[in-house]
Amino acid sequence: MHLNSHDLLEDDPVLEKGFEWIDGKPVEKPMGAASSRASSRLGSRINAHVEAHDLGEVFDSEGAYRLDPKRKRIRKPDLSFVAKGRFPGGELPTGNMQLVPDLIAESVSPNDLAVEVEQRIGEFFRAGTKLIWILQPHERSIWVLRHDGSAQRLTEQQELSGEDVVPGFSCPIAPLFAGIPALPGGD
């Protein structure tokens, strides 16, 4: 195995599973069972499409991205996609990714704070992410957020699209949330 300069930075922290690096400190990123299940279901569907069409790489919640130019923030979205041809030298890095994902998905758990979700969205968009999906398993909906500022809330009767970021990808939303109980007052 050989390391390239884009693989590891001298001060890259080695992150434990389920942790991110925020303002120079490890921060646990817990995920509830329903959120994990919905994210996993979406991940298997998008990964199958991406592999079948050779579109790039899909990463689970352990794919780490260095977003802050001062190297104090390393985020791990629940799901991410990087288009083909974007990795330096065409090779996956050994350590944290030094580029911005084209797409991320975050699956909201009941213990997630809205301010923290908003902060994550802002960080990824400021860094250059094009498309963000916010899964709300207990509400059975997905917010589609675009870099241009437009947004759309999709319900379980609709389909999720990769738009121009993951060309040709679409999937019905209902199966992603099957078996997950709705919260009282949800859709």
Beta-strand content: 25-35%
CATH topology of one domain: tt1808, chain A
- The N- to C-terminal Cα distance equals 50 Å
Q: Roughly how much helix do the residues carry, as a percent range? A: 10-25%
Query: Which CATH top level class of one domain fits?
Result: Alpha Beta
Number of helices: 2
Q: Identify the strand order in the major beta sheet.
A: 3-6-7-8-9-10
For the record, the CATH architecture of one domain stands as Alpha-Beta Complex
Query: Quick one: overall form?
Result: globular
Q: Helix-strand pattern, N to C?
A: EEHEEEEEHEEEEE
Structural class: alpha+beta
Per DSSP E runs of 2 or more residues, the count of β-strands stands at 12
Q: Considering the protein shown, what is the CATH homologous superfamily of one domain?
A: tt1808, chain A
Radius of gyration: 16 Å
